[in-house]
Amino acid sequence: MDAAYLYFDTFRLDRENRLLTRNGVPVDLSGRYFDALALLVGAPGALVSKERFLEEVWRGVPVTDEALTQCVKALRRALGDDATRPRFIETVPKYGYRFIAEVSEGAPESIQVAPAPVGFSGSALLEAPPLYRFDWARYWLLAGAGVVGGGVAGVIGGLFYGFVAAGQTAQNDSAVVLVMTALTVLFSMLGSAGICLGLSAAVQRRANWAGHMAAGAMGGMIIGGSVKLLGLDAFSLIYGSSPVTITGGIEGVVIGAAVGLGMWFTRRSGPIRLWPAALIGIGIGVAIPALGGRLLGGSLIAVAQMLPQSQLRPDQIGALVGENGFGPVSAMVSGALESLLFVVGVVWAMALAWRQMDRRSDPDRSE
């Protein structure tokens, strides 16, 4: 088909001006991806081989099959297509791809042809149909994976605090380690549940970095604020007093945003990149105590200091960093450890689950 304009579903492909629109609203595509779509749409129903893609789109530039796979995945995202139930681009395993939607050279009545390209105004974004199908099964699996990752981080952190506490008490060491580990796992899983329920939606919608951070921060704020409110009220009710402060909504916002940003860095293909999450985790773990906030270790110390009968004392933690008691350096070191474990644990588990679900649902991966 050699016409300048090709129409399919609610899309118009303008080959002269290299523009794809949906109901008159431009759809963002890079140069090579536009060329690949034009090649497919220009030969509806015909098999377009991998070799033809490489020859006409990449023009002989040496690339791997992964580059073509990523190109087709990007086109499907732009079109709102699903690899498992395709409406536009069908995979022919081992050979190439086929465009299966009806294509015409005249505008169907269902397409609103605009006289000129229209920018992404707020009303246009609100009226445009969603480009990604929301999969609730994936949502819950992804959130659950993040909670498991938070639990694993809690086990490691709990063992650290447990062995530190065991050296200070006259009680059975194994019981102290078990109790401290259980407490840390409980709080880690609660925190990761709040963050992951918000972040999973952003990952499903393939939001940008700001969307990932906002979703994680919102979940962290809700769960952190709730735990702090209920915790302080519970202490006031039972003991008649409460710690001056424990970890809460503000810390939840920061940690949730950190997890969201760390997750955004894992979106590329190839090995899961955890070093950005690790650096972010260490950074905020140092910054929160330095600015007067508290993470889990600082909160446990605050509670212990309020209760004269408590056998948990901060002296041994401080001794590890050369301080007398749980001072600012101790708070920053323990905060960096906690945040590193939590952010990396949640990001690793969610990214691994997302990759596995992608491989199972995307036939391109089996070529």
UniProtKB/TrEMBL annotation:
SMART domains: Trans_reg_C (SM00862). One of its GO terms (molecular function) is DNA binding. The chain crosses the membrane at residues 139-163, 175-203, 215-238, 244-265, 277-304, 331-354. InterPro entries: OmpR/PhoB-type_DNA-bd, Sig_transdc_resp-reg_C-effctor, WH-like_DNA-bd_sf. Residues 3-101 bind DNA. Residues 3-101 form the OmpR/PhoB-type domain. GO terms for biological process: phosphorelay signal transduction system; regulation of DNA-templated transcription. The keyword Transmembrane helix applies. Keywords: DNA-binding, Membrane, Transmembrane, Transmembrane helix. It comes from the Bacteria. The keyword Transmembrane applies. This is Transcriptional regulator.
